[in-house]
Amino acid sequence: MSDKYNIGVIGAGSWGTALAILLIKNGHQVTMWEFRADAAERLKRQRENAEFLPGITLPPALRITNDLGEASRNKHILVIAVPSHVVREVAGKIAMVRDREDMVFVNVAKGIENESLMRMSEVLKDCIPWLIDDRIVTLSGPSHAEEVSRFIPTAIVAASTNLSTAKFIQESFMNSTFRVYTNIDILGVELGGALKNVVAIAAGICDGAGFGDNTKAALQPRGLVEMARLGTAMGAKPDTFAGLSGMGDLIVTCMSKHSRNRYVGEQIGKGNKLTEILSQMTMVAEGVKTTRSARELSKKYNIEMPITDQVYQILFEDKNARDALYDLMMREPKEEKLG
After folding, report:
1. What's residue 339's pLDDT?
2. Mean per-residue pLDDT, 213-218
3. Do 176 and 219 belong to one domain?
4. Which residues contact 59 (CB under 8 A, 6 or more apart)?
């Protein structure tokens, strides 16, 4: 068993809450930050995150605060569990706290910033001048919060440019129901975690439009090709996309009832409008914003990503799903290649 550490979890959504519960189970001292004062008080009083993770009791040892400084100061590990589009804002505030030079930042957000096209580890470094690569880990893989919080066996990957730092996080998070592998290809791991959400929206569209198993079974490996194609062009290792943060996360996000991105796609496939779908959701579907970033990256690196392009047209140009499928199916004949 690993040593015990003082850990801050920044973000009290479903994933932040699930990880806080996991870390308490591992014997760590954990403080979780909720940005809304009234919601923080409700969590303290009810000991349940009914909004994002209903039915799961919060451990008595879990501290909950609305004070970002309290959640960030004097921590060995700081878990960044806010949606990707607010990582920059939150990181800018955390930059004011500098009381441990050895604090390790663990990013669990899966997205690519629209304006800068930065991955989340890059956003953290951009906002926190004293943060170095050796102190950043991205935790990613097929891991729905609903299952992790119930201690259903799960395997993920801890990625960092520094293998020792990745191993430190591996030892701190790993237990009998949560297996953690290490990887030094943080670029590939982050891209896999973000880009699979775009394919998951496409999978949901297949479900909502009434397409069959054959369609989804074709979509996933071809989506994986797009992920690997862009990733390798950006400098990632091809093998990373065959692992947990690539193929593994792609499978669970395309198939699971828990997947927010698949749900968004399903509703669109049924004919509902994106704005209406998002306005009725409590949780964030990261793939919507990531679709914009992925399309821009495909242009920047001159990489062909036909599924991503069609998802973009469906989401933002009101293209009909069946027309998009026809255009994908009727592209010029090609040899099957990975990458």
Report:
1. 59
2. 94
3. no
4. 21, 24, 25
Domain finish residue from 184, 200, 219 = 184
Q: Which of 75, 196, 273, 289 is catalytic?
A: 196
Max distance between CA atoms of the chain, in angstroms, equals 61
- How far is Cα 250 from Cα 244, in angstroms, rounded to an integer? 9
Note the pLDDT of residue 2.
62
Q: Which CATH number do you get for residue 309?
A: 1.10.1040.10
Sort strands 77-80 and 178-183 into parallel, antiparallel or unpaired.
Answer: unpaired
Is 166 in the same domain as 209?
A: no
Q: Mark whether 300 is an active-site residue.
A: no
One domain, residues 202 and 174:
no
Tell me if the pTM is above 0.70: yes
Q: What is the pLDDT of residues 23-74, one digit of tens each?
A: 999 999 999 999 999 999 999 999 999 999 999 999 999 999 999 999 999 9
Q: Let me know: does 34 contact 63? Beta carbons within 8 Å.
A: no
Q: Are residues 193 and 178 in the same domain?
A: no
31: DSSP letter? E
- Domain of residue 171 covers 6-184
**Number of separate domains in the chain:** 2
Question: Confidence class of residue 109 from pLDDT cuts 50, 70 and 90?
Answer: very high
